Amino acid sequence: MGDAREIIQKAPSHFFDVCYQDPFSPKVNPELWTIEFFQTL
């Protein structure tokens, strides 16, 4: 699919009704556990 950080930036506003955050763990995917990424969601 691609990098979630890039895909979420390209999605139109109100594109998702629900977002299931499952990036394994901060140790495995630290970039998906940042404050900035959660604010983007």
Summary keywords:
32% helix; 41 residues; mainly alpha; globular
Quick overview:
The chain is mostly helical and 41 residues long. It has helices at 4-10, 35-40. The chain has a domain at 17-41.
Secondary structure elements and pairings:
Blueprint: H1 4-10, H2 35-40
Report on this structure.
This protein is an all-alpha fold and 41 residues long. The mean pLDDT is 86. It contains 2 helices and no strands. It has a domain at 17-41.
Structural class: mainly alpha
CA-based gyration radius: 10 Å
Kindly report how far apart the N and C termini lie. 17 Å
Helix tally?
2
Give the rounded overall mean pLDDT.
86
Major sheet: none
SSE pattern = HH
Strand tally is: 0
**Uncertain ranges:** none
Secondary structure: helix percent: 25-40%
- Principal-axes geometry comes out as globular
Binned strand content: under 5%
